[in-house]
Amino acid sequence: METDKIISELSFKAVRSSGAGGQNVNKVSSKVVLTFNLTASKALTEEEKALLMHKLATKLSSENLLILNCDEDRSQLKNKEIVIKRFLALIKTALIIQKKRKATRIPRSVIEKRIKAKRNLSEIKQNRRKPQI
């Protein structure tokens, strides 16, 4: 994955932020909306695209667009940096392929230890009972 190529394929749009902020909210477009077209990307291989489509299926739109928003800061430039970092982290974590778990046998010594502990506890409980006459 080449981050420079992927960043060049991103498209940004500045939008007015919602929420509190007084008159500044009505004047300044500080919120940044990042869109990434997954199917049209030339920076990713077909395998990577398939993996991303599978792992990010809930985050993708019907046209396979990944849309991220950021309105944390009052600066449009900082919001753009934040959303790019968030996007790259999301892509990197989605591209990690987990190793398949190998099923292992429980060692005989562990099984014997457990059974011995059960037997020991059973004896302790039996010794607490009243003696039968």
Order of helices and strands: HEHEHEHH
What CATH calls the topology of the domain at 3-94 is Double Stranded RNA Binding Domain
- Please give the radius of gyration in angstroms: 28 Å
Helix content: 40-55%
In CATH terms, what is the architecture of the domain at 3-94? 2-Layer Sandwich
**Helical/strand content category:** alpha+beta
**Sheet with the most strands: spatial strand order:** 1-2-3
Figure out the total of helices: 5
Give the tally of β-strands. Answer: 3
Which word captures the global form? elongated
The low-confidence runs, each spanning 5 or more residues with pLDDT under 50, are none
CATH top level of the domain at 3-94?
Answer: Alpha Beta
What distance lies between the first and last C-alpha atoms, to the nearest angstrom?
A: 80 Å
Task: Report the β-strand fraction as a percent range.
Answer: 5-15%
Would you tell me the overall average pLDDT?
Answer: 89
Largest sheet: 3 strands, antiparallel
